[in-house]
Specification:
Helix content is 30%, strand content 19%. With 566 residues, it is of the alpha+beta class. The longest helix is centred in the first third of the chain and has 20 residues.
C-alpha cells in the first residue's frame, strides 16, 4: 500500500449502487469500516430501481405466519430439484443460511422494510419442495420525500410502469384504478393515490414520491446510505483494479471530474455493477441466437465490473442453464428513432383470452408460465419453427379489460400504437394472419383449437392455468379456469415479442464468502463480487419471484462482513 501513490484511501470500495452494492457498503460501514461507494452514472439504484422489487428469502421471519409451513430441508429440496448441480451445494447452502440473517441484520439496522407475501407460489409449485407462500417479500412503500434534496439522485422507475406521467403503481393499485367507477372502495383508494400524486407535482417534484416496487427498495437502501453518511461518488466510472506484487487487490483507478484518480482499499473492493446485458461482445459470446439489444436492465450495465474482475484474474462461472434471466419484450419503435421496451412479466399473458403463436401461427408454450420459461419456450420452439419474434394475440374483449403490453385497457387511446406498428389490429383472423405473416388457415385452426379447450376448461395442449402459479396470475373471478377465456370477438389484436431479458445470470465465479475465484479455484485476495456480476446462485434457472434481488442483498451482506473480518 505504501509503494503506491493514492489520491484517497479507505477501508473498502464498493463499485455499483444497486441492491448488492448498497448492501455491501452499508454492512461494511456497520461493521466499522470506512467505505466509499462509487457509481458510474449520475443516479443511485442500478437495475434494482427499475425492477419489480420482489426479494426471495426463504425462512424469513414473516414466513412462519404465512400459513404455508416451510423448512430448510424443504427449500433445499426445491433448489436441488430446479437448480440441480448447476451450482455447488455449498453456494446454495450459503444463500439459504445467510438470507434470513441478512434480513434480520438489515431490519435491526433500520435499513429494510420488507413485507412477506402470504400467498405467492414458487414458479414450479408442483415440484418437490415448492411452497405457495412465505418465501418472497416486497418492499413496503417508501416516501421519497425522506430523501430530501437527494431524491433526484435516485434512478427513475421505468416510464412504462408509471401512470399520469409519473405515478408509480402496483398490481393492487391497477385493480383499484380499473374498478374506480364501479366500486366505492376502489374509488376512495384511487382518489387518495391520485391526490397524493398531484400534490407532489404541485410541490415541484418531477414525479410522485410514493415509491413502490424496486424503486422503493433502492430508496430504502439509499436513505440508509444518506442517514449513515456513507461517502458516495456519482459520475465516477472505474477503469481498473490495482493489485500488489502478490496479486492482492489493493485499490481502484477511477475517472472523476475529468481526472484519473487512484483509491486505496485497505481491506478490498466489491464489484457489483449489474452484469453485462448491454455489452454486445459478451452477449454475442454467451447468449443463444438469435438475440438483440432487448434487455430491460439499464443501458449502463455493460459488463464493466466483469471486465475489471477478469483483468484481475477472476474467471467466469460455467454450467448455467441460461446466461440471462429471460422475459418476453415488445418493442415500440418511435418516429424519432428511439425504442420503448415493454416486458410482459405478470399482467397480460396469464389472463383468460390471450394466446401466443410462433412464425407458423401455432401455439408453442404455456402462455401463463413464468417470463423466464416463456422465453426458454421461444428458443426451444425456434429450433423447428421461427419463434423469435413470436406474437401475443387477443380479441376486443380482452384488450378492453386487460390491455396488451403498452396498449392500456378500458378504452384508453391506442391509435398511436397502431400507427407506429406496435399494436396490430384486424377485423378478421385472416386479416390478422396477414399482418403477422402467418398462414391464415393455420392461425384459424390454432384459434379454433384453443377455443375448444376453453369450452372444456382445460388446456391439454400446453397446460395454461394448470398450476397454482398460473392461476395466481390469472383472473380469479373467471371460471372454471382463471387463465382460459375465448378469443372470438373482433377486432383482433397482436403484439410482437422478442427474447428479452431482465439481467444476466452468468458472471464471475465466487466462493460462499463472495470472494472472486481464478480459473483454478484460487481466491483473488481483496476482490469480492455480488449481484448480477456474480455467477448466479440459481444457475441460470428462475425458481421463484425475487431470486435476483434476494441473493444480491445476501451476498452483498456476506461481502461486507467478510471485508470487515479480513
Amino acid at each position: 500500500m505504501n509503494a503506491q501513490h493514492w489520491d484517497k484511501t479507505v477501508d473498502a470500495i464498493v463499485v455499483g449502487s444497486g441492491a448488492a452494492g448498497m448492501s455491501a457498503a452499508l454492512t461494511a460501514h456497520f461493521e466499522g469500516l470506512d467505505v466509499l461507494l462509487i457509481e458510474k452514472t449520475d443516479r443511485i439504484g442500478g437495475s434494482t430501481a427499475v425492477s419489480g422489487g420482489a426479494v426471495w428469502i426463504p425462512l424469513n421471519p414473516g414466513a412462519q405466519t404465512s400459513g404455508y409451513p416451510d423448512s430448510l430441508e424443504k427449500v433445499q429440496q426445491y433448489l436441488d430439484e430446479i437448480v440441480g448441480d448447476r451450482v455447488p451445494a455449498h453456494m446454495k447452502q450459503a444463500f439459504l443460511q445467510n438470507g434470513p440473517r441478512m434480513l434480520d441484520y438489515m431490519t435491526s439496522h433500520q435499513v429494510l422494510d420488507l413485507v412477506t407475501r402470504s400467498y405467492s407460489p414458487d414458479y414450479y409449485p408442483d415440484r418437490p419442495g415448492a411452497n405457495l407462500g412465505g418465501r418472497s417479500l416486497d418492499p413496503a412503500a417508501f416516501d421519497g420525500r425522506k430523501l430530501g434534496g437527494k431524491f433526484a439522485q435516485l434512478r427513475d422507475p421505468l416510464k412504462e410502469f408509471l401512470v399520469l406521467g409519473g405515478m408509480m403503481i402496483t398490481t393492487t393499485d391497477v385493480s383499484h384504478l380499473l374498478a374506480a367507477t364501479r366500486k366505492f372502495r376502489s374509488f376512495w383508494y384511487s382518489g387518495k393515490l391520485v391526490l397524493r400524486y398531484w400534490w407532489d407535482r404541485l410541490r415541484g417534484y418531477g414525479r410522485g414520491t410514493r415509491l413502490v416496487l424496486g424503486n422503493a427498495l433502492a430508496a430504502q437502501l439509499f436513505h440508509a446510505v444518506l442517514r449513515n453518511r456513507i461517502d458516495y461518488w456519482l459520475d465516477t466510472p472505474a477503469t481498473s483494479l490495482i493489485r500488489d506484487d502478490r496479486g492482492r487487490v489493493t485499490g481502484l483507478a477511477v475517472r472523476r471530474d475529468g481526472r484519473m484518480l487512484t483509491i486505496g482499499a485497505r481491506k478490498g473492493v466489491v464489484i457489483a455493477t449489474g452484469g453485462f446485458p448491454w455489452d454486445e461482445a459478451l452477449r454475442d459470446e454467451l447468449y443463444p441466437k438469435p438475440t438483440g439489444m432487448w434487455s430491460m436492465a439499464p443501458a449502463d450495465n455493460k459488463g464493466d465490473g466483469i471486465r475489471l474482475a477478469r483483468d484481475a484474474g477472476a474467471a467466469m462461472g460455467a454450467g448455467h442453464a441460461s446466461p440471462a434471466f429471460w422475459a418476453p419484450v415488445s418493442l415500440l419503435r418511435k418516429a424519432d428513432g428511439t425504442v420503448v421496451r415493454y416486458p410482459h412479466l405478470v399482467w397480460d399473458r396469464a389472463k383468460p383470452g390471450l394466446i401466443a403463436v410462433n412464425g407458423k401461427g401455432e401455439r408453442f408454450v404455456n402462455e401463463s408460465t413464468s417470463y423466464h420459461d416463456f422465453v426458454t419456450g421461444m428458443y426451444e420452439s425456434n429450433k423447428t419453427a421461427p419463434s423469435i419474434p413470436a406474437y401475443l394475440i387477443c380479441d376486443h374483449d380482452f384488450i378492453e379489460k386487460w390491455g396488451l403490453g403498452l396498449a392500456l385497457p378500458g378504452g384508453r387511446p391506442r391509435r398511436h400504437l397502431i400507427d407506429a406498428g406496435y399494436l396490430l389490429q384486424a377485423t378478421t383472423l385472416e386479416e390478422l394472419a396477414g399482418r403477422i405473416k402467418v398462414d391464415p388457415s393455420t392461425l384459424a385452426r390454432t384459434v379454433q383449437r384453443y377455443n375448444s379447450l376453453v369450452e372444456q376448461g382445460e388446456d391439454v395442449d400446453f397446460g395454461k392455468g394448470s398450476t397454482a402459479y398460473n392461476r395466481y396470475l390469472g383472473d380469479a373471478a373467471h371460471r372454471p379456469n382463471p387463465c382460459l377465456g375465448p378469443l372470438a370477438k373482433p377486432p383482433y389484436y397482436a403484439v410482437e415479442v422478442v427474447a428479452g431479458d431482465i439481467g444476466t445470470a452468468c458472471g464471475i465465479r465466487t466462493n460462499s464468502q463472495a470472494q472472486a475465484l481464478s480459473a483454478d479455484g484460487a481466491v483473488i485476495p481483496g476482490l469480492y463480487v455480488a449481484g448480477n456480476d456474480m455467477q448466479s446462485v440459481m444457475g441460470g434457472t428462475y425458481p421463484a419471484p425475487g431470486i435476483t434481488l434476494g441473493p444480491a442483498l445476501t451476498f452483498g451482506w456476506v461481502a461486507g462482513r467478510c471485508l470487515a473480518a479480513s
